[in-house]
Design brief:
This protein is mostly beta strands. It has one domain: N-terminal domain of TfIIb (Single Sheet), CATH 2.20.25. It is built from no helices and 3 strands. Strands 1-2-3 form a 3-stranded antiparallel β-sheet, with no helix packed on it. Strand 2 and strand 3 form a beta hairpin. Bound molecules: zinc ion (ZN). Zinc ion (ZN) binds next to loops.
């Protein structure tokens, strides 16, 4: 199996504690679901595991300015 040593995932820090995920103990795996890019992450420091994805399109309401 070839390993791309130049590959750097877009997720670099743990979403819970902020520790670097780019190390041998943590894990970031990238996969694609249609046009979405999804990252499965596991942080060795705090134990958080979960998924995050790039946002392709979103809708938001306008905030009231009072
Ligand atoms: Zn963490």
């Amino acid at each position: 199996m070839a390993v791309n040593k130049d590959y750097v995932p877009n997720v670099r820090f743990c979403l819970k504690c902020g520790d670097l995920l780019n190390n041998r103990e943590s894990l970031v795996v990238e996969y694609w679901e249609g046009d979405r890019t999804v990252y499965v992450c596991w942080c060795h420091k705090c134990g958080w595991k979960g998924e995050t994805s790039d946002i392709v399109k979103f809708a938001a309401t306008e905030l009231d300015e009072e």
